[in-house]
Specification:
The protein is built from one helix and 25 strands. It has 376 residues and is mainly beta. The chain folds into two domains: 155 residues, Jelly Rolls (Sandwich), CATH 2.60.120.1340; 217 residues, Thaumatin. Strand 22 and strand 23 form a beta hairpin. The termini are far apart.
């Protein structure tokens, strides 16, 4: 069994539900409302657990968790959430652990996402919490939620969600020749292969095994055709996923297409690592750019700020859309000085939404996406 974390955007559409379990269909979820004490300097405390019953074919499960951490006394501290499986406690250094500082006499919601690959049979997905250090105060988990979504086939077996042909056109309107980068958000080539992307003109010469690159002249277009969906990020001029855009800012287009189990598409522009180019994402029903796809939203982001009321964007430094929970840190990052661009609402119900979606239905999947990078 492999375990790795994924960006929150992968299943950000999942909503917490109370007392609900659909294990036979590969989905489980539930909330715990009873306060649970997290002791100062203690070990992991299990705060939620959800059963998942799978078949004998390997499956991939994505667990989305949240918890409301309250510190009722005069000293705050750093607290961690961790996702594990079958009573195996997470390691503090694990990718499936998320930490956040909580001030004294306050509450804060912390979230975590983890991917479990190659599961068969029955399992328990477990959510833990702990204080990060012995100096950290006691705290309480007032409420926790855990949603699990499992595909019928493993990400590693070369199978996708279903055969639907979709085209992604990357368009360079920056005014000069640019190097573009395409990153595989789950750090897996499945349901395709490295050769699949190389044959379409994206070369894995970036130094990152899961990011490829291609060059476009001004007004040029690079076309990618996918048949089983895909979860990708696209950037221009700077390697995709670069923290704070390598000190200059980084705009990214993110597309998660033909997702299981309903064939929905999710897409957004991420400014979590800053801004270097204007980005638009246009879902189209045909090659005519004047014919948008039905029931879909076009996104057009032209600056770092002014995006708090625009649907389909993760604003600057807002890694959970409505807050800067664990923003990028390091050289060139604004540290605690990110602009106040958060969307209203809560993490699971932002207003407006930070991901645009093509609704589920018989004709849900959009056939064409134009992703255009322009000078701001």
């Amino acid at each position: 069994m492999k375990k790795r974390s994924v960006g929150f955007c992968l299943f950000a559409s999942l909503m917490l539900v109370s007392g609900l379990s659909f294990a036979n269909s590969g989905v489980a979820g539930g909330t715990v409302n009873t306060p649970i004490k997290i002791n100062k300097g203690g070990d992991w405390v299990k705060i939620n657990a959800q059963p998942v019953s799978l078949g004998e074919s390997p499956s991939t499960c994505t667990a989305t968790a949240s918890a409301s951490i309250s510190v009722p006394n005069a000293q705050g501290g750093t607290y961690s959430l961790g996702l594990g499986i079958d009573d195996a406690k997470p390691l503090s250094s694990d990718n499936c652990v998320r930490s956040s500082k909580v001030s004294r006499n306050s509450s804060q919601e912390v979230s975590d996402v983890c991917l479990f690959d190659g599961l068969v049979g029955s399992h328990s997905i477990d959510l833990y919490a702990k204080a990060a250090t012995k100096k950290t105060s006691n705290a309480y988990i007032d409420k926790s939620g855990l949603i699990i979504h499992c595909s019928e086939k493993s990400l590693g077996d070369g199978a996708g969600t279903g055969g639907v042909t979709q085209t992604i056109n990357v368009i360079n309107n920056t005014g000069s020749t640019q190097t573009f980068y395409l990153g595989l958000n789950n750090k897996t080539y499945a349901p395709y292969t490295k050769l699949f992307w190389q044959n379409q003109g994206c070369l894995f010469t970036t130094g990152n095994d899961y990011a490829c690159q291609f060059t476009l002249a001004n007004n040029g277009t690079q076309t990618f055709t996918v048949t089983q969906g895909g979860n990708i990020a696209i950037s221009a001029g700077i390697l995709v996923w670069s923290t704070c855009g390598g000190n200059t800012g980084l705009s990214m287009a993110e597309l998660n297409l033909n997702t299981t189990p309903y064939g929905q598409d999710y897409y957004d522009v991420s400014l979590v690592n800053g801004f270097n180019y204007a980005v638009s994402i246009s879902p189209l029903a045909s090659t005519n750019p004047d014919v948008p796809a039905p029931d879909s939203t076009s996104i057009n982001i032209t600056s770092l700020t002014g995006n708090s009321k625009i649907a389909g964007v993760y604003p600057a430094g807002m890694d959970i859309c409505v807050a800067s929970q664990s923003p990028p840190i390091g050289s060139g990052c604004p540290e605690g000085n990110y602009p106040n661009e958060a969307h209203a609402g809560t993490q699971y119900d932002p207003n407006p939404v930070c991901q645009a979606a093509q609704p589920a239905g018989a004709n849900a999947t959009v056939p064409i996406y134009n992703v255009t990078f322009s000078s701001p």
